[in-house]
Amino acid sequence: MKKRQLDHLEKRLLEERERVIKELGHYDESFSSTLQGAGGDLSSYSFHMADQGTDAMEREKQFLFASQEGRYMWHVNEALRRLYQSPKTFGQCHDCGEAIDFDRLDALPHARLCIKCKAKEEDEKQRR
């Protein structure tokens, strides 16, 4: 892979990392603000059972989204680690060793597998 392409992918990965950090910061603020209800109460407990259910569901959704962003951050960090540790092999499929298309890496800079190997992996997951 050319130096210019590697620089572009590094920039994309760093931008994705920044976006995820901001998003996780948003969730942190959101988690903190749910401790003080919309009415300004210092208690995070609602008095009505329906409100309690709604509040619990909203917290669960926020935790789910934050968890997904955290996993995505792990993938981005792993891609940056691979890029910095061995730039000559970055962009090679971990299964077959073939070069991953630059268009795929541009769209998904943390990709570890080429399209063929990823499709095979997805097929195997569906069969289970």
Distance between the termini: 36 Å
- Helix coverage percent: 55-70%
Strand content: under 5%
Name the overall outline: elongated
Q: Tell me the major beta sheet.
A: none
State Rg. 20 Å
- Pick out the low-confidence regions: none
Nearest-integer average pLDDT: 85
SS element count, helices: 4
Structural class by secondary-structure content:
mainly alpha
Order of helices and strands: HHHH
Strand count = 0
Textual characterization of the structure:
The protein has 128 residues and is mainly alpha-helical. The chain has a domain at 3-90. Helix content is 69%, strand content 0%. The chain has 4 helices and no strands. Helix 1 (3-34) runs antiparallel to helix 2 (49-85).
Features of the shown structure:
single chain, 128 residues, mainly alpha, 4 helices, 69% helix, 0% strand
Secondary-structure blueprint:
Elements: H1 3-34, H2 49-85, H3 102-107, H4 115-127
Helix pairs in contact: 1-2
In short:
The protein has helices spanning 3-34, 49-85, 102-107, 115-127. It is mostly helical.
